[in-house]
Design a protein that fits this description.
With 406 residues, the chain is an alpha/beta fold. It has helices at residues 24-36, 48-58, 74-84, 99-108, 120-131, 142-204, 209-237, 247-255, 276-292, 350-361; strands at residues 16-20, 40-45, 62-66, 89-94, 112-115, 243-246, 261-264, 270-274, 300-305, 312-317, 365-370, 376-381, 385-387. It has a five-stranded parallel beta sheet, sandwiched between helices. Strands 7-9-10-12-11 form a five-stranded mixed beta sheet. It has a three-stranded antiparallel beta sheet with strand order 6-8-13.
Length: 406
């Protein structure tokens, strides 16, 4: 039986280490310690900027990086050397009072960290592990870092949830817009059909005198109504673009356009998250409807209330009220008892439908609160808002109250 083959020595490669620390005495001692432990110190630097200049040239296996240094700290230096040499290991050297920065060091790319007052075996062990892709986390620092990482994870989870909620809100608003577009098609077809029909009739028939004038007047009225429809639709589509706005100032702005409109509101602004243009359009539609069904000597009141925390705006007229049989359908497009070509009141139907759609696009609503004979109240429930403390009279200042014309 032959003798066993002699054992062959397995060649070992010394780990190449680059040391970065701004304390010259500590850095020299550390380099000596590492050499005594069989590691190859290929370079050293006293600052993060100096380390960046040299590391690319010497290409060490591991950088032993001080965390706190002037000019450029270890976090930024780690981030930059890892960009140059992604596979290189970095071990952070930290003090006991630097625990909160360790998380940032790990995020920057450090493989592990040890305290400066750790014994030599622990430092060398951390370097050897980092050279093979492993990591050492000092037991004195690990609990606080885990707590910070856990808090950061919780924050990210909350942020992800907030993004999910925001995305759902966008989807709901998109659905509102799709509904609005569908209704627009329906709304446009009716007046366009009337306009085309009248135009073709004029073209075919030799209208003369008064008959021609009446046909043209009707044609112009329908065309103007169509233009108003387009403007209303544009305002409703814009309702998804929101900002902080003062609901009371919107009420006074609308009231300033007709002497029959008065505003009842407490002093001080009532802020809400809404699209200002769309909010004006909601009020304009409600007020236009109220004026259309009121006589010239009757007032229309805009009442702003935020006592319940969420602003509510009521538009109150003294007109004939709403027929109970029609109350359930007045928000449907073009719902009126009158025929298209003979309507006296053009406000109910289209205006109320778009007012409600605009309000709902802004997380609010428009409803008929009271339709009894002799008074009608439409309620605009504005999106969530905060009541601002009484800071004085709103801007613009309320117009003086006007007595009904006699």
């Amino acid at each position: 039986m032959g003798s066993p083959a002699p054992l062959r020595a397995v060649p070992t490669t010394r780990i190449r280490v680059f040391v970065v620390d701004d304390n010259d005495g500590f850095r020299a001692s550390l380099c000596s310690l590492l050499e005594d432990e069989g590691l190859d110190v290929v370079g050293q630097a006293s600052s993060g900027a100096e380390a960046i200049e040299q590391v690319g040239n010497v290409a060490p296996d591991v950088v032993l990086m001080d965390l706190r240094m002037p000019e450029m700290d270890g976090i930024e230096a780690t981030r930059r050397v890892k960009e140059m040499l992604p596979s290189m290991g970095v071990v952070a050297l930290t003090g006991a009072d630097e625990q909160r920065s360790v998380r940032d060091m790990l995020v920057a790319g450090a493989s592990g960290y040890v305290l400066k007052d750790s014994d030599s075996d622990e430092i060398v062990h951390a370097i050897r592990l980092a050279s093979t892709g492993g990591a050492v986390l000092s037991p004195e620092v690990t609990p606080s870092v885990i707590d910070e990482l856990t808090e950061a994870l919780d924050r990210e989870r909350r942020r992800a949830r907030q993004l999910e909620v925001a995305q759902q809100a966008l989807l709901e608003r998109s659905a509102h817009r799709q509904q609005l577009v569908g209704r627009l098609g329906h709304e446009l077809r009716t007046p366009v059909t009337v306009i085309l029909g009248l135009a073709q009739t004029i073209r075919r028939s030799p209208h003369q005198g008064l008959a021609l004038d009446e046909a043209l007047d009707t044609l112009i009225a329908r065309a103007e109504g169509l233009a108003r429809l387009v403007r209303r639709f544009e305002a409703a589509v814009e309702a998804g673009l929101t900002e902080r706005a003062d609901v009371t100032s919107l009420a006074y702005e609308v009231a300033g356009r007709d002497p029959r409109i008065v505003v009842e509101a407490s002093p001080g602004p009532v802020m809400a998250t809404l699209n200002r243009t769309a909010g004006l359009r909601v009020l304009e539609e409600l007020v236009e409807n109220a004026l259309a069904f009121s006589s010239t000597d009757q007032l229309v009141t805009i009442k702003v209330d935020a006592d319940g925390g969420r602003p509510e705006v009521r538009v109150i007229d003294q007109g004939p009220g709403v027929d109970p049989d029609a109350a359930g359908r007045i928000f449907e497009p073009l719902e009126q008892a009158e025929e298209l070509n003979t309507r006296t009141h053009q406000g109910v139907g289209l205006g109320l439908s778009l007012a409600r759609l605009s309000a709902r696009s802004m997380e609010g609503d428009v409803v008929l609160e009271d339709g009894t004979s002799g008074a009608t109240t439409f309620l605009w429930i504005v999106s969530g808002a905060d009541r601002v403390p009484n800071l004085g009279p709103p801007t613009p200042a309320p117009p003086p109250a006007r007595a009904p014309a006699t």
